[in-house]
Design brief:
By secondary structure, the protein is of the alpha/beta class. It has three domains: 6-16 and 201-296, 4-hydroxy-3-methylbut-2-enyl diphosphate reductase, catalytic domain (Cobalt-precorrin-4 Transmethylase, domain 1, 3-Layer(aba) Sandwich), CATH 3.40.1010.20; 18-102, Rossmann fold (3-Layer(aba) Sandwich); 104-192, Cobalt-precorrin-4 Transmethylase, domain 1. It is 35% helix and 18% strand.
């Protein structure tokens, strides 16, 4: 046992956002209403713990609809959103489906549809091959130009006086996105913007919480998944804002205690797709080998709630 205690600096808010809560609840309610199995196209959210838990309850995860063995069973689309071709395919296959796309992602889908009606080119700020980006690009027939960084803006093939629009993925780094938007506005004279910031409230709140703690941390640990954009951004933000080191922890059971050698102050958070139970279990794990003091500053708790479809509500 170390003589000096490890200080855990807990970021807040952390963990599940309203969109993730809604998506998971939709799967659970579908299982209650229809019984198992219920199919889910792609990971409902990017978290192995959540996926494995839902599997034990009767959910079957597939990459594509044609992998479903029984078309009489319902399917739920993931929180990251899907291209329009997916519900069209479900209708063709006569599969009952429920769309768990986060309402904040759906807002972006409506934005790109509106920009298409205006017949203006659309820039999408996001990460290539991310499910949310694939879903957004699949909402319109006109070409959409993906930019991942400031340099990509120079490759968008339109003249300076072209009226152009942009939207963003919801889980990006707030700081990096602002720089890309600035590059777009520097290149184009007439830029149509979303009515509201596309980066979701939960992404912004979690990044701001990390920024406050990071300067005091010898190490910042983000509990989340490798394929989770919001998890990876939190790791980057912690490092950029002063943590001596930051890391992503996907499986708390595989955490190596030697990582804490010569480290006193440990920042800790969970991404918007990681449940609070993983944070608490990780702290319990540390307490088996160390004297641990947990420090959590007061913060404004999020009170946003997204309703599930009426068809999924189980009536007593």
């Amino acid at each position: 046992m170390r003589i000096n205690p490890i200080n855990i600096l807990l970021a807040g808010p952390r963990g599940f956002c309203a969109g993730v809560d809604r998506a998971i609840l939709m799967v659970e309610e579908a299982l209650k209403k229809f019984g198992g199995p219920v199919y889910v196209r792609h990971e409902i959210v990017h978290n192995k713990y959540v996926v494995e838990d839902l599997k034990t309850k009767g959910a079957i995860f597939v990459d594509e609809l044609k992998q479903i063995k029984d078309f009489s069973r319902p399917v739920i689309f993931s929180a990251q959103g899907v291209p329009k071709a997916v519900p069209e395919e479900a209708s063709f296959l006569t599969i009952q489906y429920f769309d768990a796309t986060c309402p904040l992602v759906s807002k972006i889908h409506r934005e790109v549809e509106n920009f298409e009606r205006l017949n203006v080119p659309i820039i999408l700020i996001g990460h290539r091959d991310h499910p949310e980006v694939i879903g957004t690009m699949g909402q319109v027939k006109n070409p959409m130009f993906l930019v991942e960084n400031e340099e990509d803006v120079s490759n968008v093939p339109y003249e300076k006086d072209t009226q152009i629009a942009y939207v963003t993925q919801t889980t990006l780094s707030v700081d990096d996105t602002q720089l890309i938007i600035k590059a777009i506005k520097n290149k184009y004279l007439n830029v149509l913007e979303p009515r509201k910031d596309d980066i979701c409230y939960a992404t912004t709140n979690r990044q701001e919480a990390v920024k406050k703690i990071a300067p005091r941390c010898d190490l910042f640990i983000v509990i989340g998944a490798q394929n989770s954009s919001n998890s990876l951004r939190l790791v980057e933000v912690a490092k950029e804002y002063g943590a001596k080191k930051s890391m992503l922890l996907e499986d708390i059971g595989k955490f190596e205690n030697k990582i804490l050698d010569n480290k006193q102050n440990i920042g800790l958070t969970a991404s918007a797709s990681a449940p609070e139970i993983l944070v608490q279990n990780f702290i319990k794990l540390l307490k088996k080998n160390y004297t641990v003091q947990v420090h959590e500053q007061e913060y404004i708790h999020e009170n946003i709630n997204f309703k599930i479809p009426q068809q999924l509500k189980v009536t007593s």
